[in-house]
Hints:
It comes from Desulfotignum phosphitoxidans DSM 13687. Pfam families: ABC_tran (PF00005). Keywords: Amino-acid transport, ATP-binding, Nucleotide-binding, Transport. Residues 2-235 form the ABC transporter domain. It contains 10 helices and 10 strands. It has helices at 40-47, 70-75, 93-100, 107-120, 122-126, 137-149, 167-184, 195-201, 219-224, 226-232; strands at 2-11, 14-24, 29-34, 55-60, 63-64, 78-81, 155-159, 187-192, 204-209, 212-218. Strands 6-7-8-3-9-10 form a 6-stranded mixed β-sheet, with helices on both faces. A 4-stranded antiparallel β-sheet has the order 2-1-4-5, with helices on one face. By secondary structure, it is an alpha/beta fold. Adenosine-5'-triphosphate (ATP) binds at residues 11, 14, 16, 34, 36-42, 193.
Amino acid sequence: xxxxxNIHTYYGNIHALKGIDIEVEEGEVISLIGANGxxxxxxxxxxxxIVPAQKGTIELNGEDITYLSPDNxxxxxxxxxxxxxxxxxxxxxxxxxxxxxxxxxxxxxxxxDLSYVYExxxxxxxxxxxxxxxxxxxxxxxLAISRALMSRPKILLLDEPSLGLAPIVVKQIFSIIEKINxxxxxxxxxxxxxxxxxxxxxxxxxxxxxxxxxxTDTGANLLANEDVKKAYLGI
Length: 235
Ligand code: ATP
């Protein structure tokens, strides 16, 4: 469904991605793990067109989307939930969710999707009139994921969904990510430092080191891999 081939991305002179190959099949959850600065966020930002690739190709269902603008990539159904969440702090929860659906005009389905995200995250329903910026970190992450779901994405890109959250909230968010994948067949590409949870939730995973993919396998095999255990699972 999504195919990155030999992707090179630079920030000025910094060669952040040095020939990345990643494939995400329809309906899969894929996790990309790696240390700080490995290039995980850059991989997502290149996929969503925010930091364009200098070399290589990105295809969505066979169509070359490498040089599309970020808004056109969103229109193709790739929706990124950025690191640090970036919800609209002065808009209410309900208004934030409306913004997620701004490219759509199928009002009946928008209503259905709104009920669905309120079902997934009942706390958001309770807080629907509260300003986004006054939510807790975990609630803001839930809102950011829900806002992305309101665009009915084909692929959801999640950048560090666990960042800065308490372990219990992280677990809750990962279990809902799995639920979203199972119930809607939404394809999900997660970038995470919490390798343990990310690989548990994933069908397949990729390991990244200083701009290169160094390993790929099923989530279960990577969790059992001695090198992965030592480097990323603290075992
Ligand atoms: P983290 O888990 O810490 O967010 P990451 O794996 O997501 O790390 P990236 O943020 O993709 O890593 O960074 C990859 C490399 O690119 C790093 O060396 C980083 O310093 C560099 N980099 C990232 N953003 C920029 C930028 N805006 N300008 C210059 N260099 C950047």
